[in-house]
């Protein structure tokens, strides 16, 4: 089975700090990671490859430093890594991003049997790119997949959505977006990491390699624009308590008393 | 067959009528209320797109809740929700009637269907909006959506392509009262050829493990990354047990494999409205707090005195939840 996995390098979101004066993100000192659900998709592809045999290509669109994420993917078991990088790709919304990613699939010498991506990313969290790649490549899609049951002419997958656990039969080639149901944790062997950084090559494709017009990629190819960024409204003024665990515990219990969730302490000893 | 010519006025604001899980999922009714408001602002009518085998009962409901027009696709082939089929039918209608605005609930289906539809129509889509407004100067739909883990709100616009599409977070807008006397009209555009879907649901079962009823819990104890381990989560369960509540978690906790997805709170999880919400080691990213805004009282425990969660808390305790919880449990056990 020939599998393509799309990944995105994202900042470690919980570590992000905001410059509230300028309404921008302070990136210094924040690690970049493979988007967690994309990493799950990667491990899922690896398992499929081990079970079925085949080939696994990992692809990302991003600035040159996204190479790190591809190296990590190679260490995790990918056979080939492709970096889609071009200054014109910057500022893309999901419409323009999916166009570049789909174009990369079209440029591959062999059309994949299966395309995987994470169900959503932690930075923008739209979940749009998977279905939009499927649309551009005219592939069936199943989103929120938690398990891949069997392979062959069709795939049988489990999908969790809107309160239902569905068993879905989908013809291949197909695109699946992966939910966190796969709970694999994997430790990379140092040998593999070493090999990924020294031996395996990363292929770079630019806008021209993909034969794309400037008007269809990046900011120019995007239908949406971010008009303004603003701070979420602060709604309440909290009573903030610091001190020893005993002091904090007393404050906690006092609040529960106010809410009548515990009875008032009997003070008439 | 009942047909309406394509030049028939079908309103310029459209809502996707997502009726799966109807009694739990009120998001379509919430969007009808908001859509009606937007339609009034730009001087048009509100239409709801409704597909199904015999979806008449929903048409009546939608009109009673504020829809002016129902754009109906009635066919056995539309009985099941299929992204590809729905994209085929609805994209043709959008091309004929040219709505300005088209919104859907950010349900699992909405989040899978709308991206594909937007791509086919080559138009913009924003995800999981928490606010929708018409800009008085340009008339554009301002789609406000959380960005950067919810640290900021981004105002997104679709300046050139139409329709302006958005999915909307459930539970943000209030539905209107059911008004039986309201009158709407139904139009039946041509459904056209419906392709054989390439994916098929073979089995479907309601996903419910144990009896987790976070939505209706009186007390919710929530854990974030700051609880550090699966073992520490036991303290939360013990606290929830003492207060007859439930345990909810943030996305990092689910990703770490410490708790199941069904306990996930926030933008992509459940929304809760307890009498008391106790947050332990959550930073308070907007993606999480959108799901807990309905809480009457919020107690937050976090080591970082600058954690955003304190901004929406009623009581903030600056300390390590993993250290503090055993003290709290000990004291409460004596009292309850």
What descriptors fit this protein?
heterodimer; A: 269 residues; nine-stranded mixed β-sheet; 6 helices; B: 336 residues; Rossmann fold; 2 domains; seven-stranded parallel β-sheet; five-stranded parallel β-sheet; 8 helices; 16 strands; disordered N terminus
Structure report:
The complex is a heterodimer of chains A (about 270) and B (about 325). Chain A has six helices and 15 strands. Chain A is an alpha/beta fold. In chain A, the strands form three sheets. A nine-stranded mixed β-sheet of chain A has the order 11-10-9-12-8-1-6-7-13, sandwiched between helices. A two-stranded antiparallel sheet of chain A has the order 2-5. A two-stranded antiparallel ribbon of chain A has the order 3-4. Chain A is globular. The model of chain A has no long low-confidence stretch (mean pLDDT about 85). Chain B is of the alpha/beta class. Chain B folds into two domains: about 1-185, HUPs (Rossmann fold); about 220-335, TPP-binding domain (Rossmann fold). Chain B is built from eight helices and 16 strands. Chain B has helices at about 25-40, 55-65, 85-95, 110-120, 230-240, 250-255, 285-290, 320-335; strands at about 15, 45-50, 70-75, 100-105, 125-130, 130-135, 140-145, 150-155, 165-170, 185, 200-205, 220-225, 245-250, 275-280, 295-300, 315-320. The longest helix of chain B has 15 residues, at about 25-40. At the A-B interface, helix 3, helix 4, strand 9, strand 10 and strand 11 of A face helix 3, helix 4, strand 5, strand 7 and strand 8 of B. Strand 11 (about 165-170) of chain A pairs antiparallel with strand 11 (about 200-205) of chain B.
């Amino acid at each position: 089975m020939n599998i393509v996995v799309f990944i995105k390098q994202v900042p470690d979101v919980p570590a992000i700090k905001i410059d509230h004066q300028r309404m921008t993100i302070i990136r210094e000192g924040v690690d970049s990671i493979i988007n967690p659900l994309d990493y799950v998709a990667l491990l899922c592809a690896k398992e499929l490859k081990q079970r079925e045999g085949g080939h696994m290509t990992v692809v990302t669109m991003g600035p040159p430093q996204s190479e790190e994420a591809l190296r990590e993917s190679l260490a995790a078991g990918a056979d080939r890594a492709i970096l889609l990088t071009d200054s014109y790709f910057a500022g893309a919304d999901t419409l323009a991003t999916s166009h570049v990613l789909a174009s990369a699939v079209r440029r591959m010498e062999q059309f994949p049997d299966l395309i995987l991506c994470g169900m959503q990313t932690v930075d923008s969290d739209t979940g749009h790119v998977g279905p939009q790649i499927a649309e551009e490549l005219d592939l069936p899609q199943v989103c929120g997949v938690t398990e891949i049951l069997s392979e062959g002419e069709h795939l049988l997958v489990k999908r969790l959505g809107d309160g239902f656990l569905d068993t879905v039969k989908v013809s291949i080639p197909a695109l699946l977006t992966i939910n966190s149901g796969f709970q694999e944790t994997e430790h990379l062997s140092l040998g593999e990491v070493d090999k990924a950084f020294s031996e395996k090559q990363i292929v770079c494709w630019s806008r021209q390699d993909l034969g794309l017009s400037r008007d269809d990629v990046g900011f120019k190819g995007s239908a949406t624009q971010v008009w303004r960024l603003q701070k979420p409204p602060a709604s309440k003024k909290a009573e903030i308590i610091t001190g020893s665990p005993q002091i904090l515990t007393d404050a906690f219990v006092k609040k529960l008393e106010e809410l009548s969730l515990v009875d008032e302490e009997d003070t008439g000893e | 067959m009942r047909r309406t010519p394509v030049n028939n006025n079908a309103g310029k604001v459209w809502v996707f009528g997502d009726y799966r899980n109807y009694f739990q999922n009120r998001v379509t009714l919430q969007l009808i209320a908001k859509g009606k408001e937007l339609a009034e602002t730009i001087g048009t009518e509100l239409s709801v797109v409704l597909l199904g085998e015999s979806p008449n009962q929903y048409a009546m409901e939608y009109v009673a809740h504020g829809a002016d027009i129902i754009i109906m696709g009635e066919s056995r082939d539309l009985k099941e929700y299929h992204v590809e089929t729905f994209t085929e039918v609805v994209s043709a209608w959008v091309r004929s009637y040219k709505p300005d605005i088209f919104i859907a609930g950010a349900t699992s289906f909405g989040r899978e269907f709308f991206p594909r539809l937007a791509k086919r129509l080559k138009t913009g889509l924003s995800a999981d909006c928490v606010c929708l407004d018409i800009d008085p100067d340009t008339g554009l739909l301002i789609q406000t959506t959380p960005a950067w883990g919810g640290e900021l709100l981004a105002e997104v616009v679709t300046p050139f392509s139409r329709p302006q599409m958005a999915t909307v977070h459930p539970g943000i807008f209030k539905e209107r009262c059911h008004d039986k006397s309201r009158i709407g009209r139904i139009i039946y555009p041509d459904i056209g050829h419906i392709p054989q879907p390439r994916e098929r649901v073979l089995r479907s079962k309601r996903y419910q493990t144990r009896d987790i009823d976070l939505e209706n819990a009186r007390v919710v104890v929530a854990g974030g990354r700051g609880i550090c381990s699966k073992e520490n989560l036991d303290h939360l369960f013990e606290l929830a047990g003492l207060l007859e509540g439930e345990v909810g978690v943030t996305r990092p906790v689910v990703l770490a494999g410490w708790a199941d997805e069904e306990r996930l709170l926030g933008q992509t999880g459940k929304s809760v409205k307890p009498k008391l919400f106790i947050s332990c080691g959550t930073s308070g990213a907007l993606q999480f707090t959108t799901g807990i805004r309905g809480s009457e009282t919020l107690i937050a425990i976090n080591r970082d005195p600058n954690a955003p969660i304190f901004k929406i808390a009623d009581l903030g305790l600056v300390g390590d939840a993993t250290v503090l919880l055993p003290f709290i449990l000990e004291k409460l056990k004596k009292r309850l």
